[in-house]
Design a protein that fits this description.
2 domains, Rossmann fold, eight-stranded mixed β-sheet, alpha/beta, Rna Polymerase Sigma Factor, Chain: A, globular, two-stranded antiparallel ribbon, homodimer
Chain lengths: 383, 383
Amino acid sequence: MPATSNSVPTTSPADTIFEVSEPFVLASGESLERCQIAYTTHGTLNADKSNAILICHALTGDQYVLGTHPVTGKDGWWETIAGPGKPLDTDRYFLICANVLGGCMGSTGPGSPNPSTGDIYGLSFPLVTIADMVDVQAKLLDHLGIERLLAVVGGSMGGMQVLQWASRYPQRVVSAIPIATAAKHSSQNIAFHEVGRQAVMADPDWHGGRYAGLNTRPTKGLAVARMGAHITYMSDDALHNKFGRSLQNRSDISFGFDADFQIESYLRHQGMTFVDRFDANSYLYVTRAMDYFDIAADHDDILARAFEGTSTRFCVISFPSDWLFPTSESRAIVHALNATTAKVSFVEIESDRGHDAFLLEEPELFATVRAFLTSIAEREGLA
Amino acid sequence: MPATSNSVPTTSPADTIFEVSEPFVLASGESLERCQIAYTTHGTLNADKSNAILICHALTGDQYVLGTHPVTGKDGWWETIAGPGKPLDTDRYFLICANVLGGCMGSTGPGSPNPSTGDIYGLSFPLVTIADMVDVQAKLLDHLGIERLLAVVGGSMGGMQVLQWASRYPQRVVSAIPIATAAKHSSQNIAFHEVGRQAVMADPDWHGGRYAGLNTRPTKGLAVARMGAHITYMSDDALHNKFGRSLQNRSDISFGFDADFQIESYLRHQGMTFVDRFDANSYLYVTRAMDYFDIAADHDDILARAFEGTSTRFCVISFPSDWLFPTSESRAIVHALNATTAKVSFVEIESDRGHDAFLLEEPELFATVRAFLTSIAEREGLA
């Protein structure tokens, strides 16, 4: 379903929809009378339902891990690592990925109709947290009859969900692979999100979040937010290597405000294409969920207590050029896990590509995930 | 003169104005029929005019190095390092600081009237470069009868001007102190500037730059630009130490989009106060001047050639926590100067406060500048 200028698709024919059967109570204390989760699966669930891997997506990701994305027509966002014979091997494992609560690809979010009024929620949608996202995923697994996950894996906000899963449902998580993530959102990261939100809210087409009823969308503000965020996903080195000061389709600077430099043209393109596939209010809600994430806060600010007595096996992965979720954040997770004598391996993977490295062709990442999952699968007696 | 919501002051009673007597030809080939530069001086010029130090300001700085700023009522931006008995000692030296060409504190810029039409220039103002800023400062020095500068000093964009001065007018520069700067603007830095410009341009009150005639100003867009930029001026550690995840005037998160976190409140304040003292079009022009800066580009892309045969003495200073102008950029300058056998000392000053460190209370910075200037002054036979 191609996007049009005044609507972002919120469902798609390829989605499988799970409707939560009772009102869903959120961390804020508010509840959603009705809510649904859109998800995809790949591979085959085995007879004893022991080969399921939950993939958790990042801020602007969705359930389209593999295959053609119904809006963009592009490949799924994690084709690099998932598929037949790949580390997240659809020949061996049953992969599940759900659009997060608050998202805009079929799961209930601020772009959904409020069942009490029939109107689009907008800002009347209650704030959701990473824990809420995970809780509704747990209900999806109940629905699928999957008691234990062989693994939960994800990068960035996906990694936050991985940590939340391991903390909240330790009996259900055989292994956990948090990648390029943190146990709490840093001040700098909250700051970047706040700028993005202010860019959206400064757009007069946002209308206090009520744009859906006004046949308009704050595309300019959302594009600016995306441009700013995109810089944080790449390393200084990656930008230097990819663009440097190269000019875009010209031999000299224009002495003006055109996109003289390739990096400018690239960022403008990123901003413009993003608004065709993402809803501005969802961007506000999901960034806020990340800001609020601080898993130790529910455990007397002692991170180790969030994982006390866990039998989950962890593989924590970071990239040294990732300045948004630097290795120090992963080390803090590892230290906490060590303090609870959890079984944890930690791999810092050489890459100069910054935070985005987890989405890219990174052979050492693939080898690490493959080896870890293979050992977990063997331990669990999978063929 | 206090700012009102619909005007940014472009002159102030404390300004001294220098009018360039003939049309001023810019690097772009265009020329300004008339142009003026607003500047301040502190200290006393000695009889042989050998104790003058030119201070070059950063992107959003101005000529108010010392004393009360006429718009904000705050202290001058470099009170930390300049004044009686301070490293930039007004008891010994004659300090000069001029608002850059393209700026909005009295120097000719996009907010000035076009003498041909009487209308405010807006985007019809020609693009200016760092070299243009320096060339017009050179004319100011001619006007003041100052042939040689004891030193040129500045941080960030001020440091770019320092390098440009040393390259363009080597005979006029006894010593140069470029701080927290680079010989070219990096891809990442161009990227951040482009996001800021797009935020301004996305504001419908910008009106293609013609807001002056419409009694409006793109304050929301400019505030977003400033918020984003401000993050880049501080280090992750500085943000963590100053704000962490501390909440603003509340005991718990609000589950909403208020400024729950102190960092959010701080950034919003930075954005809101900035728009009272800075003109949006000037922000576009001056950021663009920085983007275009690449001093080697005029020298076959060989940085050393920009300083070939120089007799200027350099003191290059960087801060390890500055990720906007990292130490590697300063090292590149030092390597080029070494290659030309220029006299250069290089000091990386321990500070966890990021790019902004050059504006802050940093005793090692002060000691370095004081010692360097004292030795230069002695060498020049100053009492």
